[in-house]
TrEMBL record:
<protein>
    <submittedName>
        <fullName>Competence type IV pilus assembly protein ComGB</fullName>
    </submittedName>
</protein>
<dbReference type="InterPro" id="IPR042094">
    <property type="entry name" value="T2SS_GspF_sf"/>
</dbReference>
<feature type="transmembrane region" description="Helical">
    <location>
        <begin position="107"/>
        <end position="129"/>
    </location>
</feature>
<dbReference type="InterPro" id="IPR047692">
    <property type="entry name" value="T4P_ComGB"/>
</dbReference>
<dbReference type="InterPro" id="IPR003004">
    <property type="entry name" value="GspF/PilC"/>
</dbReference>
<feature type="domain" description="Type II secretion system protein GspF">
    <location>
        <begin position="11"/>
        <end position="125"/>
    </location>
</feature>
<feature type="domain" description="Type II secretion system protein GspF">
    <location>
        <begin position="210"/>
        <end position="332"/>
    </location>
</feature>
<dbReference type="InterPro" id="IPR018076">
    <property type="entry name" value="T2SS_GspF_dom"/>
</dbReference>
<dbReference type="InterPro" id="IPR001992">
    <property type="entry name" value="T2SS_GspF/T4SS_PilC_CS"/>
</dbReference>
<keyword id="KW-1133">Transmembrane helix</keyword>
<feature type="transmembrane region" description="Helical">
    <location>
        <begin position="314"/>
        <end position="334"/>
    </location>
</feature>
<keyword id="KW-0472">Membrane</keyword>
<feature type="transmembrane region" description="Helical">
    <location>
        <begin position="160"/>
        <end position="179"/>
    </location>
</feature>
<keyword id="KW-0813">Transport</keyword>
<keyword id="KW-1003">Cell membrane</keyword>
<dbReference type="Pfam" id="PF00482">
    <property type="entry name" value="T2SSF"/>
</dbReference>
<keyword id="KW-0812">Transmembrane</keyword>
């Protein structure tokens, strides 16, 4: 159950059973069948936690290690009552994230193979071909120009540069993964939201999540203030604790909700207009839910568009690299022929 795909399938199936009238305990008892040590142990742990009165969001977060976004969704579902729908959507989300991850791997695996082949080719040239050319140049008294010398030096040392860069990226990725809870706090997210490319994705993601959960709470009779208090109580998404505190402070100071929303840098500007329009015609929950779906669709489209640029970029890099190898070999020959 550590794999996102397995987690997504389990959440989706539990949600489907809840929508059909099963209780959570019955759904767990049905899905985690006996006879296999893993599911049986997980079932016992979940049932034991339920008997102790532990919340579902805490159980999923502690036992299944689901992402914080999913834990927060389940936490809100405990208050607005749409647990079945929430689990189904959370399951779809995890399955889709796993599919996107596999797509990225498929997109980059062939170009990465080309890069490795190009590096091996370069090592072969450095060990076999370049020494012979240098011996030839020395025998006929040809002096390489400075630009050619630097080009050949770069190609000879490129494998070292590449592996050093790869080592640095691996170390940085490991460092970010181990310290992600400490590094990506509210102040860091606010800083990242100012970067041109990341800003759009951060705002779309936060706007979608807030509008969706806020609409569910409002639809089930929870007031605006109570909804913000519930959002503030969850601990899975610190950013939304910060947002709810700012909104509650603004409401206490006499500002309207859409005015408070417009001052939050993590939301798209349209969210304040959607809230103002929804409050005017009395359909705030419906319009927030519709707008959250619009943001999610736009987020998916932007992500897919970026994926389409990954492979061509890597191919362009490989092509440029092969051209450098070609020029490093042919340019000295052309200069020698011109000197004859």
């Amino acid at each position: 159950m550590r794999k996102r795909d397995d987690q997504g399938k389990l959440l989706k199936r539990i949600g489907d059973l809840l929508l059909k009238g099963y209780s959570f305990s019955e759904a767990i008892d049905f899905l985690l069948v006996s006879g296999r040590s893993g599911p049986e142990k997980l079932k016992r742990s979940i049932i034991h936690s339920l008997q102790k009165g532990e919340s579902l969001s805490s159980i999923f977060d502690r036992l299944l290690k689901v992402p914080s976004q999913v834990s927060a969704q389940i936490f809100f579902a405990e208050h607005h009552g749409q647990m079945g729908t929430t689990l189904v959507e959370a399951g779809h989300y995890l399955i889709k994230k796993n599919e996107e991850k596999q797509k990225i791997v498929k997109i980059i695996q062939y170009p990465v193979l080309l890069v490795i082949v190009a590096i091996l080719l370069m090592v072969l040239l450095h060990k076999v071909l370049f020494p012979r050319f240098q011996a030839l140049y020395s025998s006929i008294g040809y002096d390489e120009t400075t630009s050619i010398r630097y080009l050949v030096l770069f190609i000879e040392n490129f494998p070292i540069y590449f592996f050093v860069l790869l080592l640095i990226l691996t170390f940085v990725s490991f460092f970010l993964f181990m310290l992600k809870d400490k590094l990506f706090q509210v102040k860091h997210v606010l800083l990242l939201s100012k970067l041109p490319l990341l800003s759009l994705f951060i705002k779309l993601g936060h706007t979608h999540f807030f509008a969706r959960e806020f609409s569910f709470l409002l639809r089930n009779g929870v007031s605006i203030t109570e909804s913000l208090i519930i959002i503030e109580k969850q601990s899975y998404r610190p950013v939304f604790q910060y947002i709810s505190k700012r909104l509650l402070r603004g409401l206490r100071e006499g500002e309207t909700l859409h005015e408070c929303i417009s001052k939050i840098p993590l939301f798209k500007e349209e969210l304040s207009f959607v809230i103002a329009h929804g409050q005017t015609n009395g359909r705030l929950a419906d319009e927030l839910e519709m707008y959250s779906e619009i943001c999610f669709t736009e987020l998916e489209e932007k992500g897919k568009r970026i994926l389409t640029y990954i492979q061509p970029t890597i191919f362009a890099f490989v092509g440029l690299f092969i051209m450098l190898i070609y020029f490093s070999i042919m340019l000295p020959l052309f200069q020698m022929m011109q000197g004859i």
